[in-house]
Amino acid sequence: MLRLAVLACFAVLASAAGPCCTPKQWHGTESMVIGSMANGKAAQGYLTKASYMVNFDADSRRVALIGTSETNGYASNVKVLIDYNRNVQYTVSNGTCTKQIPNADPGSCVPANATVSGHGFLGVGSSAVNVTQYSFMIDRSTAYLTVTDNCIPVAETYYGVTNGTYAFTTIAFTGIKGGLSGNTVFNLPTECALGTGTINGGFAVGRRSYFA
Ligand SMILES: *[C@@H]1O[C@H](CO)[C@@H](O)[C@H](O)[C@H]1NC(C)=O
Ligand SMILES: *[C@@H]1O[C@H](CO)[C@@H](O)[C@H](O)[C@H]1NC(C)=O
Ligand SMILES: *[C@@H]1O[C@H](CO)[C@@H](O)[C@H](O)[C@H]1NC(C)=O
Ligand SMILES: *[C@@H]1O[C@H](CO)[C@@H](O)[C@H](O)[C@H]1NC(C)=O
């Protein structure tokens, strides 16, 4: 089964008072590796490597991703548009659009019940940046999310077992900037414009990052 790695967002409503909330709008690169084994058997496992440009807007509750994903050696060009206000997600894989109901909107804040699991810094000398690592649960997975003092995501790891499938995800966030990368990032992908997709309740993609 081809599984696409997509984003994930902060697991609470944006209005919840978590330890930190991201900027209202941001964009950047999300690079991830996901490993999974069904029933503990490597033969039923998959390894996904993906790299996406992410655009995030907390006010309009939309997230867009564009990039490439490779699962067990099979590469795909991927576009994802999630509109939480309309409760719809479009996923385009190698030109084929699928319309789905997205997972619950995680919002843009670290969960209020997250605990601080570490402090540290990146870089050297006067250019060093302090970071904080939070840990919390996403569904049945344990998550570790590292952010800067102004709540810019740096790295995330999560792992857990769902229905006998063991999964481990690591994500690096790089080049994060405030604002969006353009004013058409939330346009409906052209592949979806004919409305040929079918709604299904499933979420055929790997867990997204807590962020995007
Ligand atoms: C997607 O397209 C690329 C480039 O054309 C191709 O190499 C790849 O095999 C395709 N992936 C799938 C899953 O069909
Ligand atoms: C980073 O953390 C250290 C240790 O808590 C502190 O002394 C320093 O002022 C912090 N730097 C910044 C830029 O906040
Ligand atoms: C925090 O709250 C969520 C949802 O209410 C819950 O699933 C989770 O187990 C709680 N604890 C941690 C450490 O995340
Ligand atoms: C786990 O399995 C149960 C029973 O087959 C199913 O209802 C549920 O949707 C599954 N959960 C996930 C996350 O796949």
TrEMBL record:
Cleaved signal peptide residues: 1-16
Alphabetical list of InterPro entries matching this protein: Ependymin (IPR001299)
Keyword Lipid metabolism recorded: no
An example Gene Ontology molecular-function term: calcium ion binding
Coiled coil: none
Cellular component GO terms, alphabetical: extracellular region; lysosome
Pfam families found in the cross-reference section: Ependymin
Keywords, comma-separated and alphabetical: Signal
Entry's Gene Ontology BP terms: cell-matrix adhesion
Protein name: Ependymin-related protein 1
